[in-house]
Each structure stands twice: as C-alpha cells, then as structure tokens.
Amino acid sequence: ELAHAERRLSAQAAGATASAMETLARVRLAQATTARYASDYPLAERLLLALIGQAGSRGTEAHVTLEAEALLHEVLSFTGRLPEALARDPELIARVERARGAEDDLTHRLLNGYGHRLQMQGHLEAAEETFARLARLREERYGRAHPLTLHSLDGLARVRRDRGALAEAEALLSEVHGMRAQLLGPAHDETLAALNELGVVVSRQGRRDEAIELFSRALALKLETLGPEHQATLTGRYNLAREIMFAGRLDEARPVFAELLAVEQRTLGVDNPGTLMTHMTLGELALRLGELDEALRLLDEALALAEASLSGRPELGVLLTFRGETLLALQHAEEARAQFERALELLSATVGPEHPRTRGVMALLATLP
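The structure corresponding to this sequence follows.
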C-alpha cells in the first residue's frame, strides 16, 4: 500500500504542491519505519538517507526531516554503530528542541534513545542525567503515574543499577512495578519487565533466594497468560534458571537449561539470539562445574551458529570471552589471547571502551604473560 501511494504521488511530483510533496515525504518515512520494524535495516537506512538528502527542498528543520534523522539514529544503533549515533545525538536533540520544544514527543524519543546509547557505551553519569531530565519532562506533561513517565523512570533505575546504586534502583523499580500493576495489570508485559528487573537488582545485592522468588512470580504469570512456548515465557525460564545457577545450584540449573535449549531450537531456531544465549550459558555452566572439554564443545557449537546471526553484536563478544576463559583454563594461552583480542575489538566498537564487559576483557588480557 505504501509503495502504491509513493508511485501515485511521485507521478504527480512534477506539478505537485508543497502539501503533496510533504505527503510523499511522509509516505517514504512510513516505508522506512516499516523497514526498521521488519529489521530490514539496510533498506531503512537507504530510504532515510534519501529523505535527509532531499531536506533542501523543505528545510533541515522540517518535521519530516527531523523525524527521518531520529529514525536513522535508531537504525545506526541496531546495526552496531553506537558511537556514530552517539556523536550525532546532542546536535540533533538541540535542533529538535529548538524547532518543536522540550515537551514534544520527538524530543522525548531522542532523549530516551540518547540515554540508552550513553548507558550502552558506559557513560553512566551522563545517561543518568539524561533519563532524569526525561522523567521530569514527562512527569510535568503527563503526571508520575503515566506509562511514558514510568518508562523513563524504569530507564533511570536501570542506569542506577549499572553504576552500582542498587538500593536506589530497587526503590525506583518497586515504585514502577507497583504503579504498572495498578495501571496495566500484574500480567502486562511492561509490569513483568519491571518485576524481572527488580529480580536482577535484588540478585546483585546477594539476595539470591528473594531474586529466585521474583523470577518465579514473573514466570508463573507468563505461563498463565502466554503459554509455555511464547518467547517471553522462554525468556522468563532463562532468567530463573540463570539465577538458580548464580545461587550455586548448578546441578539443578543444568537440566532446566538443557530442556529450554531444546524448546528454543524447535520453536525459535538454532541461530535465534535467545537460543544462542541459552546455548552459551550451558557452556558457561559447564565451565563453572570445571567440565572444561564439555564447556569448549558447547561454546564451539554456539560460536559456529553465532558468527552469522550475532555478527557485529556485543553478545558475540560475550561468547568469545567465555570461550577464551575456557581455553585459558585448559592452558591454551595463545588461543585464549586471540579470543580475548577479538572480543575486545568487538565490544569496544559496539558498547565502548568504558563498558564493564569491555573492561572485563581488558583485565583478562592483562593476566596473560
């Protein structure tokens, strides 16, 4: 339908009014948006660059141009070019704020993306400031209990989690979860996301049994509302099994992961990112048990599948790190070095040199002779 509209409007373009040209630009923006949500990022990027390149005919501050630039930042992020998007963010946010105001939805969307990119690159103080500002703007416009405000508070809590302010993060997440449960219901996906994140924060404070209880509650609600093979339910099973592993109950966690992997390979595919995370975690569990040959076998299997589907993504860097640790434990230091160096290059490019995972790989490399 979008392609048909574009052809009809393009045929009229020679004698088109400014209004018709604006409509054509919006159709092309809708095409790019559709491509982005279909994960066809190369097509989305081509369409957006063409739209931005035509900005001279309507002005660089025109709404369509600004929306196209904002969407391009999302595409850059999803294709592993976080530093490029991050470098462009402040200037674009300033332009949008001048043209549309601090209270505008596009300004808020850009601030949200900027906060996430800062967080992913390890710039946690700047990320916290960005999310705090966004939460204030949305609270002023919508009130504290509005879903958009709660979304910003959730982002703020996750940054505080990452910088180690766990008590602050827990208090904020408890508030977000409680208000979402009232507004949206206890089984809504956003309510369950807050409950899951609360489990993560509680776990990081060493309260493993309490975290397992929170993950169990979330999983029970997902099973009841979505069924046993929905992707969100499978993620819930993964989170609970991983927490059981972190609690040191390795023999209990192993069959849960093995069963989960079989279900994910059947329903999602062997090279789905979620499936690969479970495959990788089984390798991590074997490493924790000291079963080094089994760990290497599982990680090699996961790596062979991940090379294509996780190419350019930080998850591949995590997998390479675990494989390097296994090789190091097997006393294959030079092979381990090659894995760590590749992981460092990938993580530096995708999440930045200050990210905890990147620093962790640097520390592992520093231990090698």
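The two ends are 62 Å apart (CA to CA).
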